[in-house]
Design brief:
The protein is of the alpha/beta class.
Length: 324
């Protein structure tokens, strides 16, 4: 079995290539060519974290696998990763274990790549400012990914710890020919043309009354049904798209809360990015549209990315082999 660690994943999976791979995964899901049951969660009593299990199958490339990941939001303050785990690939014809791949690195890259697909499809063509709510690993990967699909001229970053926010800006300003500006409030970051919420907050960090026509939001941080990074007003005002309808109906907190309040119906969820890619659903219909992409992540994305990583590792002789 092939073992591939996080550093090797980052070397083998370039962001531009991953954006292309995420488009493929989204199309496969829309064409109903995948098998991906809803993720299952385990939150042990008295433990400040959860473990999630995500099995799945793809026909093209033929991939069978499972992702097991722990999410401990408080880890970031302790200098530890919040997301940790592994993706295990199996031979789709015979069930033989093929690879164990670091899930943290895969998740960081493929999540940002999916947001880049959403931004390319839904954001205004003339979007020039990017606002990041959060300064962790996903903020760094989103900075890289979204800069590949829009020529941003100004980048704003906000987080609850302003010192860490400044440190993020200083660390990553050299990655692009654009200065990254730490701002004092989420409202300031939400003034951008494209906004990414990348926090562990269970309460809204972006409010609908702050938003203006024409903006686009990628909601990435909240992944449990009780958590929402935007309020109901933001959702009501926006054209709302998802990666996978079934998981959004089950786990998207802002959607669930707005529905329970009687502010929207299920039909407010217009459809998936895959449908926009296929041309069967209109994304941005008018310049003044406010658009939202809710990212919950799918095993289809992990399998497409990990199949590519494994093939590259085999081609380049990267990683370790163990007898299983």
């Amino acid at each position: 079995m092939h073992l591939i660690n996080g550093q090797q994943v980052r070397e083998l999976l370039p962001m531009q290539r991953c954006i292309e791979l995420m488009e493929h995964a989204l199309r496969l899901v829309t064409d109903q060519r995948t098998r991906q049951p809803l993720r299952s969660w385990l939150q042990p009593p008295g433990v400040a974290g959860v473990m999630a299990l995500m099995p799945g199958y793809l026909p093209e490339p033929a991939a069978l696998g499972v992702k097991v990941i722990s999410v401990f939001a408080g880890n970031f303050a302790r200098g530890l990763p919040s997301h940790q785990g592994a993706v295990m690939l199996f031979d789709a014809a015979h069930g033989e274990p093929l690879a164990l791949i670091d899930a943290r690195a895969v998740t960081a890259i493929r999540t940002a790549a999916a947001s880049a697909v959403a931004t390319r499809l839904l954001a205004a063509a003339d979007a020039r400012t990017l606002g990041l709510c959060g300064y962790g690993e996903q903020a760094a990967s989103h900075l890289e990914a979204l800069s590949l699909v829009r020529p941003f001229e100004r980048i704003l970053v906000w987080g609850r710890d302003h010192a860490k926010c400044r440190a993020f800006a200083e660390q990553h300003s050299g990655d692009l020919d654009i200065a990254i500006e730490p701002v004092d409030s989420a409202q300031a970051a939400a003034s951008a043309d494209v906004i990414c919420t990348l926090t562990s907050s269970s309460q809204p960090v972006v409010l609908g009354r702050w938003l203006r026509p024409g903006q686009h939001l990628n909601l990435v941080g909240a992944s449990l049904p009780h958590a929402a990074e935007v309020d109901a007003e933001a959702l009501v005002r926006a054209r709302y798209f998802v990666d996978f309808r079934d998981s959004a109906l089950a786990f998207a907190g802002e959607l669930r809360l707005a529905r329970e309040a009687g502010l929207i119906a299920e039909s407010h969820l217009l459809g998936s990015l895959g449908e926009v890619l296929q041309g069967t659903l209109t994304g941005r219909g008018a310049p003044e549209d406010l658009t939202i992409f809710k990212s919950l992540g799918m095993i289809a994305e992990d399998l497409v990315a990990c199949d590519f990583v494994l093939r590259e590792a085999q081609r380049l002789g990267v990683g370790e082999h163990v007898h299983w």
